[in-house]
Amino acid sequence: MEKFAIGDICITNENSYTKKDEWEFVNYLDTGNITRNSIDCIQRIDLLCEKLPSRAKRKAKYNSIVYSTVRPNQRHYGIIKEPPENFLVSTGFTVIDAKDKVADADYLYYFLTQNEIVDHLQAIAEQSVSTYPSIKSSDIEELEIELPGIELQKKAAGVLSAFDKKIKINILKLPTPFDALNLEKSIL
C-alpha cells in the first residue's frame, strides 16, 4: 500500500457558482441538512424572485464528498449520489472530489468518516481561533491515507456500502412506540 496526503488524491472546492451560470433556480444544501450521509432537506430557490443565500456557492456533483468544516463531531457529511439539477452546497462544506485513477470516492468517504478521523478533525477544530470549533479545507487535505490499488478500494467500499444499505433498511423496519401501543391494544 502507498501512503498519500488527501490533497494529493483529490481536488477540494473545485467549482463555485457565479452569476455567469445564469441559473433560474438552485437546489441548495446547507450544512445542517445532512448528517451521516442522510439528507433531510434540499432547499429549492427560485432565483427569478428569491435571493440566493450568501453561503450558497459551492458546486457539488455525483460522488462529491461534502464535509462540514464546523464542529466535525456533529457529522454533517455525506457523499452525493443523486445530485439534483443546479446543485449548490454551503461554503461551510469542503467539497472533495477524488481523482478517479488513484482513489475511489466511496473508499475515501469511508476513510474520512471513521470515528478516529472525525475525532482528530474535531481536536483541530477546538484549537481554531474562530468563535466556534472549525477546520479548514487544508486540515482535510493534510490527512494521510494508505491506499491499496483502485480495484481493491472499490471492492472494500462496495462491501461497506452494502452494509450501510442494509442498516438503512433495518432502521426503516424498526417499530415505533406507537406500533407497540397499537399491538398492545389489539391483544387486549
Give the low-pLDDT segments.
none
Task: Write down the secondary-structure element order.
Answer: EHEEEEEEEEEEHHHEHH
Given helix and strand content, the structural type is: alpha+beta
**Number of E-type strands:** 12
Mean pLDDT: 92
Helix content: 25-40%
What's the arrangement of strands in the largest beta sheet? 2-11-8-9
Radius of gyration: 19 Å
Task: State the separation between the terminal residues, measured CA to CA.
Answer: 62 Å
Number of helices: 6
Could you tell me the strand content as a percent range?
A: 15-25%
Overall shape: globular
Q: Could you describe the largest sheet, including whether it forms a barrel? A: 4 strands, antiparallel
Q: How would you characterize this protein structure?
A:
This protein has about 190 residues and is of the alpha+beta class. About 35% of the residues lie in helices and about 25% in strands. The protein is built from six helices and twelve strands. It has helices at about 5-10, 105-110, 115-125, 135-140, 150-175, 175-185, and strands at about 1-5, 10, 25-30, 35, 40, 45, 55-60, 65-70, 75-80, 85-90, 95-100, 145. The strands form four sheets. A four-stranded antiparallel β-sheet has the order 2-11-8-9. The longest helix is centred in the last third of the chain and has 24 residues, at about 150-175. The chain is globular. The termini are far apart. The model has no long low-confidence stretch (mean pLDDT about 90).
